[in-house]
Amino acid sequence: MIPQKTAMHEHQHQDLGFHPLRNKLSFSRMVDMASEMGMENPLFKCHEKAAKATTIINGREYINFSTYDYLDINGHPAITQAVTEAATIFGTSAGASRLVGGERPPHRALEQALAAFYGVEDCIVYVSGHATNVSTLGFLFGKKDGIFHDGLAHNSLVQGARLSGAQRFSYAHNDCDALEKLLEEKRDECKHAIIVTEGLFSMDGNIPDLPRLIALKKRYNCLLMVDEAHSLGILGATGKGVREYFSIDPTDVDLWMSTLSKTLCGCGGFICGSHDLVESLKYGSPGFVYSVGMPPIIAAACRKALEILQNEPERVKKLQDISQYFLHYAQEKGLDTGAAQGYAVIPVIIGNSWVTGFLSQQLFQRGIYVMPISFPAVKEGTARLRFFISASHTKEHVQKALDAVCEELPNAIALVQNYQEKHGAISL
Ligand SMILES: Cc1ncc(COP(=O)(O)O)c(C=O)c1O
Fold it and tell me: How many CB atoms lie within 10 A of CB 195?
């Protein structure tokens, strides 16, 4: 019986096409090879408390550089209280799509607060940040249109552009000259066009030239969308994001997108913009219309987190100070921080993926938790340790981590070289 069952099970999987999933294969291959080399799987580690500047894994405390809790707001007692109150009244689920099942007061309260924070007319909140980008771009644009996006735009933006069926033009990362050339050549072929960028790039920690992008969008009659997943709460003197950093008029950007899963400590995403845009998304965007409303407890949590961000700008200052300290300390130590500008996301670029993996493991053994990022998430040969900084990191945390990187790097290189001497060259 058992062999028969297994065979049927495998057959079903093959029919459904689960086996050839490329990502899983490349991850499995990487994890298998890594384990042959004596490396632990760094993925899916289970944290036993809210993962903040420190975390607990298997009962041991680690300095944590893998949290999006940039402003150290997650777990704030005022948020727990807001969530408890909302749960008491509304339970934990919105029950159905807001369009048909109706809304709860925390939904509009959050949207109105976000629109006011951005200084624009309206806002729509989706249940997922990733789905916000996919569904918004997928719905608003069609095959006669053109989407001009940064070469390092997040997967969700690229997926949305693909779904839309519009012509997709990827310009060299943060290169406005390259974008202008593309617009010059291709804009006239497209009925509607949009330029898509991020407020702070999630792999490199650098900032786009937003004033120039605004000038380009005006000259070439395009819309402009900025994904502020990593810049909301991080950039600008009071954390208002990339518009505050450059002191620009918020209405010069047509779609302000951000996730609720990072600075705002919840889950979901939103688009802030004109009332007409938001109404159109509310009645048409499939990821909103055909998806359940955000749990009211999450809306209440994010609303409270936004309030904390606005009332306590000292958190933003703390984050900016410690991020700048991290950047300068890393540079003094001769580490390659690429294009990072010292705002919450700072890579230490190692190059070789295997060396980066081993380095991350050795740091883990020394009580430092930082994720290795390699191809396909970044270009081949630019594997890195990606440090997410939080306002509650201290100079001691930073020194301890970066000193350990410098001490362990030669060991990680030696490990990979030894393996290669015994088994031949390895590649991903
Ligand atoms: C730039 C960017 N946009 C969108 C998303 C998706 O957001 P979420 O993880 O909240 O779904 C992410 C996630 O990391 C991101 O980095």
Answer: 28
